[in-house]
Amino acid sequence: MAVAISVAAVCLILGAKWFLQSGYRLAECTFHEATGGWCPACGNTRCVRALLEGDIALALRSNITIPFLIGLIIALYIENLLALAGRKIHILTRRRIVWYLVLVFFFIYYIARNFIPAIAPL
Ligand SMILES: [Zn+2]
Fold first, then answer.
1. How far does residue 41's CA lie from ligand 1's centre (Å)?
2. Cα 84 to middle of ligand 1, angstroms
3. What is the Å distance from ligand 1's center to 87 Cα?
């Protein structure tokens, strides 16, 4: 397990280095090029780049989806670690209504950032 985690960490570091050096070779969004609007994925590349450079504010400004998913994965990972230790603690709510509201929030966010410049990707 330790070897697998080490290999994964090295791959992540090398992948991050490649990603930071080759960012301008990445394809532009076809939807944005055709319409000028922001699709739900617009800003994800800039977000990941900003996270790799440690710029959390720029990452959140680019697209909040990746930081949200990272937070979700970390919370689930901690819950699983606690479960392995015999402590059943829920960091994340299990109430469906909350997750439906999260989906509604993201749906509104993806549409609103096409009309509100303050939340549009940079
Ligand atoms: Zn897009």
1. 5
2. 40
3. 42
Tell me the CA–centroid distance for residue 79 and ligand 1, in Å.
33
Q: 36 C-alpha vs ligand 1 centroid, how far in Å?
A: 9
Burial (Cβ within 10 Å: 0-12, 13-18, ≥19) of residue 50: buried
Taking 70 as the threshold, does the pLDDT of residue 23 lie above it?
Answer: no
Distance from residue 71's CA to the centre of ligand 1 (Å): 22
Residue type, 13: I
- Closest Cα partner for 65 from 47, 92, 50, 86? 47
Domain boundaries, the chain: 2-119
Query: Any idea which residue has 């800039």 for tokens?
Result: 46
Instruction: Specify the pLDDT at position 66.
Output: 96
Residues 31-89: tens digit of each pLDDT = 999 999 999 999 998 898 899 889 999 999 999 999 999 999 999 999 999 999 999 99
Contacts of 31 (CB under 8 A, 6+ apart): 37, 39, 42
